[in-house]
Design goal:
With 327 residues, the protein is an alpha/beta fold. The chain has an 8-stranded mixed β-sheet with strand order 6-7-8-3-9-10-12-11, with helices on both faces. Strands 2-1-4-5 form a 4-stranded antiparallel β-sheet. Strand 9 and strand 10 form a beta hairpin. The chain is globular and about 70 Å long.
Length: 327
C-alpha cells in the first residue's frame, strides 16, 4: 500500500512578534506566539487544533497561510514551500488555500453587499467575468443554504450564523483544496453551531476539502476532526487520532483539558477524576525554561523538566507527544 502524501507539511514553524519601546523604538523583547511546531495534514482529513486562549492556535493558522510572515521554519503546501514564495507565485497559491475567520461580525466589510463580498476573490484573481461572478455568487449562496436573493443585501441585515455562512461561501469561491477554520463557531449561539459544523462536513464530503479546524470546544473538535493536536503556550504537546487522544491522552496538559469535557453519563461523570491545574498560563513574552508546562504540571520533576525542552517524538504509532516523563 502506497504511503499517503501530506497536502500540508509544517516544519519547526516559529512566529515571534517583536515588542518595541522608547523614543527610538528599540526592540526590548518578543511575544513567542508560535515556537517551533511540526505536523502534517493529509488530503481530505480534518486536523483539530485545540488549546486555551492565547496559546497560539490562530497565529499558527495565519502563519501557515502566510498572512503573517514566519520568523523561521517551513510550510510545504502541495509540494511547494510557501515561506520562500513571493509576489505572483504566492498569489496564485492563495487560490488553493482559504480561511474562515472567527468573528462573522468583523470579517465582512459592512460597506459591501453580500454579492460583492463573495465575488471579491473571483474579481481579485481575474477568475471570471462580471456575469459569471454573478452566477457563481448565486450558486455559492445556495451551497451554504442561503437564498440567492440575499446577494444585494448588506452584512448588518443578517444574524451571526448567516454571516458565518457568507464567510464560508467567500472561502469556497475559488474552489480551494485547503481551508483554515479559525474558531468558526465560537462566536455563534449553541443552536447555530451544530448547523454550521454540519454544513462544513457536508461541503468537505462534496468537494474533498482538507480542514485545519481551530477551536476551544473539545467535544465539537472530537465530532468533526480525524486527528487532534493540542497546543500550549506556543508549542505542540500532543497529536493523535481523535479516539486515541480522547480515550488515552498521554500528556498531563491533554489529560487536564479532557477531564473538563462533560460526559453525558451521570455515573461515569461522578466516577472520573478531574485534573485541576494550579496557577495561570505564563507570559509568552518570557516563557519558562525547559518544558513550557512545568510551572502548572502535577508530575513535573526538578532537574529534568526545568532544564531541557522535551523533544517532539512518536510515543506510539501515529501518537506524538512532547513530555520527558511519558514512556
Amino acid at each position: 500500500m502506497a504511503e499517503k502524501v501530506a497536502l500540508l507539511k509544517v516544519e519547526n514553524l516559529v512566529k515571534y512578534f517583536p515588542i518595541y519601546r522608547g523614543v527610538f523604538q528599540r526592540q526590548v523583547g518578543a511575544v513567542h506566539a508560535v515556537d517551533g511546531i511540526s505536523f502534517e495534514v493529509f488530503p481530505g482529513e480534518t486536523l483539530g487544533l485545540v488549546g486555551e486562549s492565547g496559546c497560539g492556535k490562530s497565529t499558527a493558522g495565519r502563519t501557515i497561510l502566510q498572512l503573517y510572515k514566519p520568523t523561521s521554519g517551513n510550510v510545504h503546501f502541495d509540494g511547494a514551500n510557501l515561506v520562500t514564495m513571493k509576489g505572483e507565485d504566492l498569489r496564485k497559491m492563495r487560490r488553493k488555500m482559504q480561511m474562515i475567520f472567527q468573528d462573522p461580525y468583523a470579517s465582512l466589510n459592512p460597506r459591501m453587499t453580500v454579492g460583492e463580498i463573495i465575488g471579491e476573490p473571483l474579481m481579485v484573481h481575474n477568475a471570471a467575468t462580471p456575469r459569471e461572478i454573478q452566477d457563481r455568487v448565486a450558486e455559492l449562496l445556495e451551497l451554504v443554504r442561503l437564498s440567492p436573493g440575499f446577494a444585494s443585501r448588506y452584512p448588518h441585515e443578517f444574524s451571526g450564523g448567516q454571516r458565518q455562512r457568507i464567510g464560508i461561501a467567500r472561502a469556497l469561491a475559488l474552489q480551494p483544496s485547503f481551508i483554515v477554520c479559525d474558531e468558526p463557531i465560537s462566536a455563534l449561539d449553541v443552536s447555530i453551531q451544530a448547523q454550521v459544523v454540519n454544513l462544513l462536513e457536508d461541503l468537505q464530503k462534496q468537494f474533498g476539502l482538507t480542514y485545519l479546524f481551530i477551536a476551544h470546544d473539545l467535544s465539537m473538535v472530537r465530532h468533526i476532526s480525524d486527528r487532534v493536536a493540542v497546543m500550549y503556550l506556543g508549542i505542540m504537546v500532543e497529536l493523535a487520532d481523535r479516539n486515541t487522544l480522547y480515550a488515552d491522552p498521554l500528556h498531563p496538559y491533554s489529560q487536564a483539558l479532557l477531564s473538563a469535557v462533560p460526559i453525558p453519563d451521570p455515573v461515569a461523570e461522578e466516577q472520573r477524576r478531574r485534573v485541576i491545574l494550579e496557577g495561570d498560563v505564563p507570559s509568552p513574552v518570557n516563557p519558562p525554561s525547559g518544558c513550557r508546562f512545568r510551572t502548572r504540571c502535577p508530575i513535573a520533576k526538578k532537574g529534568v523538566c526545568d532544564e531541557k525542552q522535551p523533544e517532539w517524538r512518536e510515543a506510539k504509532p501515529g501518537h506524538f507527544v512532547a513530555c520527558h516523563l511519558v514512556a
